[in-house]
Design brief:
Condensation_dom, about 525 residues, about 45% helix, CAT-like_dom_sf, globular, Condensation protein, alpha+beta
């Protein structure tokens, strides 16, 4: 690989965006030269950001739905200083106005209202009186109940924290925020600040965290002032060219007919790619001077094309959208959704498909500032109550790991709670770990059975395995690999089913013989 290719492969999404702008001879920088200014707090009422506006509108359609809850839970083992933990959350709430924000309407216009202060009390539920063998079940029940509990955007805090005490040295911490005030990046900010504050307050020391230069409301005002006129038209022109006309709908084969109204009932299935395969995929993206996400997107598009039999594939993805340095330390909803449309026509080799994917991905990064709701408004697709607009399937690669919470005298471990809500037909979220690529399939259970998702996951792994060793293969060859892998799985399932039936018959015969 050339030195230039190595440099391209190592670029961050933001730098890739700048590269795309230069290659396409577009003007402008990644980061706007317009500085975000701190606004007057005389009224404490501010407009919503575009991302917030979309979630507020969805909440008006289906008030109090838990599909947009962000839930985190963990076990705390050791000596916990509850007072220091409560003080830490109070300080984070003081620092970040968005955690004191609610939403209302004035003259038909949605606004965010910031409370000048908010006194946080950490609820502690004592489970020590329960029999030891029942405490764990109660922890899981309460955690699931908390994850599903809705928020009222107009009243009360949009952050909830509950501490479950199992013994003096065993606790579970449940944390829930509404997506309208947070995103995945924000969880990392929250964890880092809680860890730093808890360490200081446990020792009786003051906070050493620097004050924030701006708040989320300042960003919302700046965004609405900046994204208009020429800036807005430049963004819109690209997306209209890319997605205009009749956008293809990805109708994956489902186990049940699609309901007339979109549901959010869901489940999750894990995907763990061996480290050797993950390393081969990373080597491929480095050789080609692209990112790992581009390799995965091309492979995912191939998989979906094989399932559906279409060559024009549209999927969604997320981008952090924190292009200004002062936004990186804020809690708030900055993340934006990008719509990626891949052309798989002409039976190209996978390497040729990668070139197409690189181009559309770089261009999308270069035009990431257009909020998703404005894109939907501009394209004005036919609204259907039983599916999300523009795309129904999503692929996300998390390249910013959420830091683990480390507190003095405590061991922190995850508390696994099943989340039964989803936002799309299908979402594959992948993470790079030391053990290899790890992923979670989120799927709508009103459409898919678990066995179908497991089979899709194995098909995807088989496809990636072939791509890693034979990237020069044509898509027709890769789809043959998929057909063979799918056939083998079907045979294995049939054999398993027949074996199960035979065992049941044998058991029936044994019971019948024992009665004679």
């Amino acid at each position: 690989m050339s030195d230039l290719s190595q440099k391209i492969a190592a670029l961050s999404p933001e730098k890739l965006k700048l590269l795309a702008q230069r290659l396409s001879k577009k003007q402008g920088d990644i980061v706007s030269q317009t500085q975000i200014k701190c606004q007057s707090r005389q009224t404490n009422s501010f407009p919503l950001s575009f991302a917030q506006q979309r979630l507020w509108f969805l909440d008006q359609l289906q008030p109090g739905h838990s599909a947009y809850n962000i839930f985190q839970s963990m076990r705390l083992t050791g000596w916990l200083n509850v007072t220091a933990l409560e003080l830490s959350f109070n300080e984070v709430i003081r620092r970040h106005e968005i955690l004191r924000t609610t939403f209302t309407t004035v003259d038909g216009q949605a606004i965010q209202v910031i409370a000048p202060s908010l006194s946080f009390r950490l609820p502690v539920i004592d489970l020590q009186k329960l029999p030891k063998d029942k405490r764990e079940a109660e922890v899981l029940r309460l955690a699931h109940e908390e994850a599903q509990q809705s928020f009222d955007l107009a009243n009360g805090s949009l952050l909830r924290v509950t501490l479950l005490r199992q013994t003096e040295t065993e606790h579970a911490l449940l944390l829930t925020m509404h997506h309208i005030i947070s995103d995945g990046w924000s969880i990392g900010v929250l964890i880092r600040e809680i860890a730093a504050l808890y360490k200081a307050f446990s020792l009786g020391k003051p906070s050493l965290l620097p004050e924030l230069s701006i708040q989320y409301a300042d960003f919302a005002v700046w965004q609405r002032q900046w994204l208009q006129g020429e800036q807005l038209e430049t963004q819109l022109a690209y997306w209209k060219q890319q997605l205009g006309g009749k956008l293809p709908v990805l109708e994956l084969p489902t186990d049940r007919p699609r309901p007339t109204i979109q549901t959010f009932s869901g489940a999750r299935e894990s995907l763990a790619l061996p480290k050797t395969l993950s390393e081969k995929l990373k080597a491929l993206n480095q050789r080609q001077g692209i990112t790992l996400f581009m390799v995965l997107l091309a492979a995912f598009g191939t998989l979906l094309s094989w399932y559906r039999g279409q060559e024009d594939i549209v999927v969604g993805t997320d981008i952090a959208n924190r292009n200004q340095a002062e936004t990186k330390g804020l809690i708030g909803f900055f993340a934006n959704q990008l719509v990626l449309r891949t052309d798989l026509s002409g039976n190209p080799t996978f390497l040729k498909l990668l070139e197409r994917v690189r181009e559309i991905t770089l261009e999308a990064y270069a035009h990431q500032d257009l909020p998703f709701d404005k894109l939907v408004d501009a394209l004005n697709p036919k609204r259907e109550l039983n599916r999300s607009p523009l795309f129904q399937v999503k692929l996300v690669l998390e390249n910013t790991q959420t830091p683990s919470l480390k507190l003095p005298d405590l061991t922190i471990s995850p508390l696994k709670v099943e989340n039964k809500t989803v936002q799309f037909d299908l979402l594959l979220e992948l993470n790079e770990t030391e053990q290899g690529l790890f992923g979670i399939w989120e799927y709508n259970t009103d459409l898919f059975d678990t066995v179908s998702i497991v089979q899709m996951s194995r098909n995807f792994e088989a496809l990636l395995g072939r791509i890693a060793t034979h990237p020069e293969a044509k898509l027709s060859e890769l789809k043959t690999i998929l057909s063979e892998a799918d056939k083998q799985q079907n045979l294995a399932q049939e054999q398993t089913y027949e074996s199960t039936i035979q065992k049941k018959l044998m058991n029936v015969k044994r019971r019948a013989n024992s009665r004679l």
